[in-house]
């Protein structure tokens, strides 16, 4: 039986259609099949090949061989040195797309995976995320920072060495503006932050919870975009990922590692996109905006129906996805 669910944070609709999973040709995700060597001589992100990438912007540790390293993306989607401009052609407008776009190498190991990382390795990755997130906002051209990870070719990843990316946009994306406006309207009516309310209700309802720790809860959203789509939500109100303190950062590394570990075991290392939904400094300490991370496994294709209607089709019941992930969740 199909049903249409609405995502209260994004305004998106999802068709939950479990019968679609039985279609011929729908992939069966078995055991993990990706196998990489710890070093790859031709990989531009492996140690020893630093000259093939632009100069380092972040490294850890500060001395000796690096374990985590960030640098500008050689194939940046933005013009790294551009200055603002605007052009009008009849009814059309173009503006200069300039700003920073960096790669964050999550490890010196070519075969590293956050899903299998130690807690210290995961902390090192999250520390780099927080550092670069705050650093990109210090660029005066930047209005919005997008931090994301593409894992696997279906998710848009072209270099297999484990890495994330961070982009400093010269404008605030429309979906963020809409989310902020909706959250503000909700706050005006009921004087509460919608994400704080979702955290409260999901903890109460229990059935969509995947994992929790001192500072976070991971849930499959009511209107999950795909099978095993998971949100990692700070349980205390927090506007910006860039202001994450050290204790919270350690908790985030813990829950991210465990959720990715569960996903890897449950679906056999599927391709996925991880993105951070956070707010620019102009919204600092807003009572209605609350950052979170969204993990979307790319296990179904976006096709004509989705493009024509902007309604995603999810062949899994969110409550069943959550139970499946819970069954594979690493204990610590
Ligand atoms: Zn490599
Ligand atoms: Zn909140």
Write a structural description.
This protein has 332 residues and is an alpha+beta fold. The protein contains six helices and 15 strands. The chain has helices spanning 119-137, 174-190, 194-205, 246-267, 304-309, 318-327; strands at 3-6, 13-16, 58-60, 68-72, 86-89, 92-95, 101-105, 144-151, 163-169, 209-212, 216-219, 230-234, 272-277, 292-297, 311-314. The radius of gyration is 20 Å and the shape is globular. The two termini are 37 Å apart. It binds zinc ion (2 copies). The site of one zinc ion has 6 residues, from loops.
List the helices and strands and how they pair.
Blueprint (H helix, E strand, L loop, with lengths): L2 E4 L6 E4 L41 E3 L7 E5 L13 E4 L2 E4 L5 E5 L13 H19 L6 E8 L11 E7 L4 H17 L3 H12 L3 E4 L3 E4 L10 E5 L11 H22 L4 E6 L14 E6 L6 H6 L1 E4 L3 H10 L5
Parallel strand pairs: 2-15
Antiparallel strand pairs: 1-2, 3-4, 4-7, 5-6, 7-9, 8-9, 8-13, 10-11, 11-12, 12-14, 13-14
Helix pairs in contact: 1-4, 4-6
The protein binds zinc ion (2 copies).
One zinc ion (ZN) binds next to helix 3.
Q: How much helix is in the residues?
A: 25-40%
Sketch the topology as an H/E string, one letter per element. Answer: EEEEEEEHEEHHEEEHEEHEH
Total number of helices: 6
C-alpha termini separation:
37 Å
Spatial ordering of strands, largest sheet = 3-4-7-9-8-13-14-12-11-10
Bound molecules: zinc ion
Q: pLDDT under 50 segments (min length 5)?
A: none
Hey, roughly how much beta strand do the residues contain? 15-25%
Biggest sheet architecture:
10 strands, antiparallel
Structural class: alpha+beta
Q: What is the residue-averaged pLDDT?
A: 93
């Amino acid at each position: 039986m199909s049903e249409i669910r609405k995502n209260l944070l994004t305004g998106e609709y999802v068709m939950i259609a479990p019968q679609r999973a039985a279609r011929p040709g729908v992939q069966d995700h078995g055991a993990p099949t990706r196998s990489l060597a710890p070093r790859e001589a031709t990989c531009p992100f492996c140690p020893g090949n630093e000259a093939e990438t632009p100069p380092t912007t972040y490294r850890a540790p500060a001395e000796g061989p690096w374990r985590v390293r960030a640098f500008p993306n050689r194939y940046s989607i933005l013009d790294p040195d551009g200055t603002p401009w605007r052009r009008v052609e009849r009814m059309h407008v173009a503006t200069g797309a300039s700003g920073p776009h960096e790669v964050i190498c999550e490890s010196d190991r070519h075969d590293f995976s956050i899903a299998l990382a130690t807690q210290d390795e995961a902390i090192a990755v999250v520390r780099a995320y927080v550092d670069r997130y705050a650093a990109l906002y210090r660029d005066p051209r930047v209005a919005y920072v997008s931090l994301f990870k593409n894992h696997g070719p279906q998710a848009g990843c072209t270099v297999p060495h484990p890495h994330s990316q961070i982009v400093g946009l010269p404008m605030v994306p429309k979906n963020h503006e809409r989310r902020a406006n909706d959250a503000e309207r909700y706050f005006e009516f009921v004087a509460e932050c919608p994400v704080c309310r979702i955290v409260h209700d999901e903890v109460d309802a229990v059935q969509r919870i995947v994992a929790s720790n001192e500072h976070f809860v991971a849930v499959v959203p009511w209107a999950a975009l795909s099978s095993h789509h998971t949100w990692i939500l700070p349980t205390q109100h927090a506007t910006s990922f860039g202001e994450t303190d050290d204790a919270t950062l350690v908790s985030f590394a813990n829950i991210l590692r465990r959720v990715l570990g569960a996903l890897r075991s449950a679906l056999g290392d599927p391709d996925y996109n991880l993105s951070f939904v956070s707010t620019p400094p102009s919204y600092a300490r807003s009572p209605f905006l609350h950052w979170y991370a969204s993990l979307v496994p790319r296990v179904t294709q976006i096709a004509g129906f989705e493009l024509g209607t902007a309604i995603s089709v999810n062949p899994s019941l969110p409550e069943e996805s959550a139970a499946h992930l819970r069954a594979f969740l690493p204990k610590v």
